[in-house]
Amino acid sequence: MEATMEPGSTRRSFVNWLLGTSAGAFVASLLYPMARYLVPPPTGESTAVSVTLPVKADDLKPNTGQIFKFGSKPAILVRTAAGELRAFTAVCTHLNCTVQYRPDLSQIWCACHNGHFDLNGHNVAGPPPRPLDAYVVNVRGTQIVVSKGA
Amino acid sequence: MPPAVGPRGRLWSWLDERVGLVELEKLAHKKQVPIHRHRIWYYFGGMTLFLFGIQVATGILLLLYYRPSAEEAYESVQFLMAEVQFGWLIRSIHAWSANLMILALFIHLFSVLLLRAYRRPRELTWMSGVALFGVALGFGFTGYLLPWNELSYFATKVGTEITGAVPGLGHFMLRLLRGGDEVTGATLTRFYGIHVAILPAVVMAILGLHLYMVQKHGMSVPPSVERQGGPRRTMPFVPDFLLRDMVGWLSALAVLAALAALLPAELGKKADPFAPAPIGIKPEWYFMFMFQTLKYLPSRILGIEGEIVGILGFGIAGLFLLLLPFLDRTAERGGRSTVFTWIGVGIIVYVIVLTYLGYTASPTK
């Protein structure tokens, strides 16, 4: 094979290879910063482990619920018909909508795709695949403190 | 030496010498449109293009008042609707024309499908059309968020979360779309950039290709008409077909004006990331069939999360649509590919039924 090759052909193919890889590297050096630019910088995970709610414990009537801010995400505080306080993340496990309390069903409900959760946060009907994460609720005097489980 | 004055005046001759008007005129008169019983469907491509033109014009006008930030977007649209003269009209026409454009696009796409106009040599015309359909949905999805109201906020949350469910690349794509982990002002700015700069540039490229190929290959005659044989009747595109086109466009303009005046676009409540999703939340009607499908899927199907099954299903359907010219080998040989007619009709019926259910099924049950 070597003998039949024209004398210039290896040099030619080397130059072509050099030109091709240079062009490729040039394009890559343009595209790489653009691609990295499009990816948003990472945001710090919310470090909140507990929040004191702006509502008084007595203001929340039985069989109602309320959305509050837990770090950067919404959470829901529910007072059951029996008077017990419970808190969960308010982010539906299906497609991320914010859930609400339905007094007529005594359930937590997501309006987006009709997902139902019971008052232990378990997904009981509709498309949600997982239960809602539960938080720990402590009442200190009249203040409500919600924290992540240990 | 002074230029020779042609029979059509000095200006014509001057321009012809520089631009080549005679060639352009020849090109315009070359195009012939076949006449047969299915010819009504030829009008929907042009209709889509006309409504797209309205979108460009009204979109540019809206840009002059709109402010793309979470703090100001809602208020700037409120100001536009309440204070700016005819602001309500421009925005309502933009919103209605978007809906009619997608409708015309649906009709164009399915009529081309059922009449087999994707046959050789129009495979790339079809594929560029399917791509334009995807871009149009992208326009709808990104534009919906811009007023930054409650409905659009949650629709975007759900819509972008769906991309997050794609196995493997999902989380990366979700962050890329949202400009972060959550739907925030960063998402709004990003969608604004996509809506007014990126997608228009993409449309220019694909639409240019699409129209070039339509011009190159001419209108497709359906196989059912070809099989009948007999003499082929045609009419010139300029002026016969174009004038008929314009009757349609003027009617569309009248319908748009009536819709915008009688049912102006609403604004709703400002988005609040810490409020529950509102009851009766729904996407734009052209996403309704997908939205309603996701409602009916159980949480697990064969051990896989229901939403992932749904998303994969729609992905495969989209790919099927894109590659249709290469799957339907019978039509290419001029035969009757009844299976593909039934698949096409099946898709249409599915979309209509699920959309109907989306608007009638109780949102709270």
Structure description:
The complex is a heterodimer of chains A (150) and B (365). Chain A is of the alpha+beta class and 150 residues long. Chain A has one helix at residues 9-38; strands at residues 50-56, 64-70, 73-79, 85-89, 100-102, 107-110, 115-117, 123-125, 134-140, 143-148. Chain A has a 6-stranded antiparallel β-sheet with strand order 1-10-9-4-3-2, with no helix packed on it. Chain A has a 4-stranded antiparallel β-sheet with strand order 5-6-7-8, with no helix packed on it. In chain A, a hairpin with a 4-residue loop joins strand 5 and strand 6. The mean pLDDT of chain A is 86. Chain B has a domain at 29-278: Cytochrome Bc1 Complex, Chain C. Chain B contains 16 helices and 4 strands. Chain B has helices spanning 10-19, 21-30, 43-63, 73-82, 87-114, 123-145, 150-164, 170-178, 185-217, 223-228, 237-262, 288-296, 306-322, 324-327, 329-332, 338-360; strands at residues 32-35, 233-236, 300-301, 304-305. In chain B, the strands form 2 sheets. A two-stranded antiparallel sheet of chain B has the order 1-2. In chain B, strands 3-4 form a two-stranded antiparallel sheet. The relative contact order of chain B is 0.13. The chains are: A alpha+beta (150), B mainly alpha (365). Chain A binds chain B through residues 38-40, 43, 67-69, 72-74, 76, 90, 92, 94-100, 102, 109-114, 123, 126-129, and chain B through 154, 157-158, 161-162, 165, 172, 175-176, 178-182, 186, 273-281, 291, 294-295, 297-300, 305-307, 363-365.
Strand order of the biggest β-sheet of chain A: 1-10-9-4-3-2
Oligomer classification: heterodimer
Secondary-structure-derived class of chain A:
alpha+beta
The figure for the number of domains of chain A is 2
Instruction: Give the C-alpha Rg of chain A.
Output: 29 Å
Helix amount of chain A, in percent? 10-25%
Annotated CATH architecture of the domain at 29-278 in chain B: Up-down Bundle
Distance N to C terminus of chain B = 85 Å
CATH superfamily membership of the domain at 29-278 in chain B, which one?
A: Cytochrome Bc1 Complex, Chain C
Low-confidence stretches of chain B: none
Shape descriptor of chain A: elongated
Total beta strands of chain B: 4
Query: What value does the average pLDDT of chain A take?
Result: 86
Largest sheet of chain A: 6 strands, antiparallel
Approximate shape of chain B? globular
Q: How many angstroms does the end-to-end distance of chain A come to?
A: 73 Å
Mind describing the biggest β-sheet of chain B?
2 strands, antiparallel
